[in-house]
Structure formats: structure tokens, C-alpha cells
């Protein structure tokens, strides 16, 4: 039993060492939060997934995503609509017209953009070179007039209609990661102290008392830790001769 336990501990140490080495070598940041998946459209290589970022503006979400992973291209800051391009994925950030405090994050595959968007619409957000490379198979122009999830009722996508995601869709959907602040609650206190907000874990409050030791005070008449005894003892005086020891009276 002891041998198995020791073997298990060694295995855990090895795994933790490997993970730390991977993180040191520039591994992807840890996933701390995921926006809920709201709608799905398309199939195969032509897919579109829509997430909801509650209480987040378009520029805030764009910054969170670009901080997690630097995009190949990002459009100019805009409170209503922005694009982030990641190789074969296009992130279309849109302010929800029905709930303006929320941002809808539409993750479209490259094929979905080709089949549904028009180059004239994307010209206001992406470079001409990127648009040309994107629509090269369509003669430099897109085949649809789709303008994003928020306008799907007016500009319908040709690749299919949006629907509520199934459990299988949630497994296949690309994750949207953001970084959140953690918090630490002090034991014995109801106050929540955010990390990095000036109330760190090791900060000492001004009204907290510090312990001290006073060498000159006794505790309850019993004498302090470093108090000298009240009575001093004298060494016995000895007299040589006669084999006797005389103690001073």
C-alpha cells in the first residue's frame, strides 16, 4: 500500500513538472470564463456560432479577446460593430439592439463568410488585401448580403437559418475565453477584497494592532517571560579545614 502511494505521489510530481514547463514555453492562457452559446447556423465547414457577452460593450469584448489571443487583423474601435480575424475564423462583434448593454460575439468560419457576406459590406472594417484573398473564388466579391446576426431578419444568411444550440453543438463550438478578476475573502470577515485593488492578501490595515513584548512588565504578578527572579541566591561560603562546610546564616 505504501509503495503504491509513493508511486502515485511521484507520478503527480512528474505531471506537475511537465505542466509547469509547458506553461513556461508559452502555452495558451488558461480558460477562466466562457460566454454562453446562444445560436448556431450552418453545417460542415460553413458554420456560425453566436455567444452573448452580458454587460460588455463591443470595445471591451474586443480588448478581452485580443488580450487572450492576438488577432491577425482587428477593425477600428466602434461601439456598435467590430471585426477580429483569426486565420480561418472571423469574430464579428455586435451590440445587441434589443439589449444594448450586451455584446453578441459571432464566430464565423472562413467558408461561412465567403458564402454569406458581401465584400462591399466588409470594406468598412477589413483591408482590401484580406477581402481580396477571402473572396478570390468568387471573383473578388461575396455571394451574399448578410450583415451579421443582429440584422439576420433583414439580411438573411444563405447558408441556413439560426437555431438554438443542442448539447452536441456546445461541444463542437469554438470557445470564447476572457480573463476575469479573482477575489479573496479574509477568514472571519464578510468583506471581499479584490486582488490588485489595493487590498491584497498580505496588506495590513492601519487599525490592526501589532503584538509586542515588554521586558519591564510582568503578567498578572507572575512575572513576564524575561523577568528576573525577585530573590537572588547567595553562593555558600566554604571554609577549608576540618573537612566541614560552613553555610552563612
UniProtKB/TrEMBL annotation:
Signal peptide range: 1-27
Region (Disordered): 146-249
Bias kind Gly residues: ranges: 240-249
InterPro entries documented for this protein: DUF4247
Pfam families, per the entry: DUF4247
Keywords, ordered alphabetically: Signal
Domain of life: Bacteria
Biased composition regions of type Basic and acidic residues, renumbered to the chain: 168-193, 202-217
Protein name: DUF4247 domain-containing protein
Organism field: Paenibacillus polysaccharolyticus
Amino acid at each position: 500500500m505504501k509503495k503504491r502511494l509513493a508511486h502515485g505521489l511521484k507520478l503527480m510530481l512528474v505531471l506537475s513538472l511537465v505542466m509547469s514547463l509547458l506553461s513556461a514555453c508559452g502555452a495558451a492562457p488558461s480558460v477562466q470564463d466562457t460566454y454562453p452559446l446562444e445560436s448556431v447556423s450552418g453545417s460542415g465547414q460553413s458554420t456560425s456560432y453566436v455567444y452573448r457577452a452580458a454587460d460588455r460593450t463591443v470595445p471591451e469584448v474586443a480588448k478581452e479577446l485580443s488580450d487572450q489571443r492576438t488577432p491577425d487583423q482587428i477593425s477600428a474601435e466602434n461601439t456598435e460593430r467590430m471585426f477580429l480575424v483569426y486565420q480561418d475564423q472571423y469574430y464579428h462583434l455586435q451590440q445587441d439592439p434589443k439589449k444594448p448593454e450586451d455584446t453578441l460575439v459571432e464566430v464565423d468560419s472562413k467558408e461561412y463568410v465567403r458564402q454569406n457576406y458581401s465584400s462591399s459590406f466588409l470594406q468598412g472594417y477589413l483591408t482590401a488585401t484580406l477581402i481580396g484573398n477571402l473572396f478570390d473564388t468568387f471573383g473578388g466579391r461575396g455571394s451574399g448580403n448578410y450583415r451579421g446576426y443582429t440584422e439576420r431578419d433583414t439580411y438573411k444568411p444563405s447558408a441556413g437559418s439560426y437555431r438554438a444550440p443542442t448539447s452536441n453543438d456546445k461541444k463542437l463550438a469554438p470557445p470564447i475565453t476572457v480573463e476575469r478578476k479573482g477575489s479573496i475573502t479574509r477568514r472571519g470577515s464578510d468583506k471581499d477584497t479584490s486582488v490588485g485593488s489595493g487590498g491584497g492578501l498580505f496588506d495590513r490595515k492601519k487599525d490592526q494592532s501589532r503584538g509586542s513584548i515588554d521586558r519591564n512588565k510582568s503578567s498578572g504578578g507572575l512575572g513576564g517571560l524575561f523577568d528576573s527572579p525577585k530573590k537572588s541566591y547567595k553562593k555558600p561560603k566554604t571554609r577549608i579545614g576540618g573537612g566541614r562546610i560552613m553555610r552563612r546564616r
